[in-house]
Amino acid sequence: MSRNWFEAGAEGYSRFRPSYPPALASHLAEATRRSVAAAGTSSAGSAGAGECSAGSADTRGLCALDVGCGTGQLTVALAAHLPRVIGADPSADQLSRAAAHPRIDYVQAPAERLPAPDASVHLVTAAQAAHWFDLPAFYAEVRRIAAPGALLALITYGVIETDPDIAARVDRFYSAEIGRFWPPERHHVDAGYRTLDFPFAEVPLPPLAITGELTCAELLGYVSTWSAVRAAHEAGREALLRDFAADLRALWGDPARTRTVRWPISGRLGTV
Fold first, then answer.
1. Confidence check: pLDDT of 52 > 90
2. 130 within domain boundaries
3. Residue 126: enclosing H or E segment and its boundaries?
4. What is the pTM of this model?
């Protein structure tokens, strides 16, 4: 197995991280429209590049901010349903590979200093990212930029579901073999974000999942983006990683074969 398998940065995220289903973005957009309409205000009009602006009560002017957007997996999905989306990430490398879209402006910024004026954003999202944030600082910024009726969505997904033999080997690798290399924040992902402090009035999320048809190489590519895999590599545990890849290939059989892979989605949605 080549060294590059262990060194997934922005390129690995762009190639191998799953994209969110249209149903998630559609639900978030519609929930935002309802919440903002009920609050009686919206933003429209004169925002410049990379920002939203406060304005009139017109839900056509809704603005979303996707925080920790990475290479744009959720950002692009939101742009299919909302007229203006900002993707913010602290990593220039991630943003350099973010998917372009005419409705999206990408801005290099951390979660604790959000790139939007006061009371200007109607939907704030963070997908597979909130467990890394300084949450009190992030929440203070969310409250600052939130327009009346704005929603906050923290989205995550956990370990894959697939054919039992493949899933069992991935689970053993995830928990028993590289478990000690996961950062402490990972337990929030395993708990579906139910353990995150979330001081907002909650709105139910429907049951959703990401699904894809993956080859063995694509599944290994996805696993290579895990922070614990990178940490294990840096700790000199390449043999552990090579053994997992060899086992997975043996179980998989024909390398051209695809298998259905499912990532159950969970998270928190609330009114700011």
1. no
2. yes
3. strand 121-127
4. 0.88
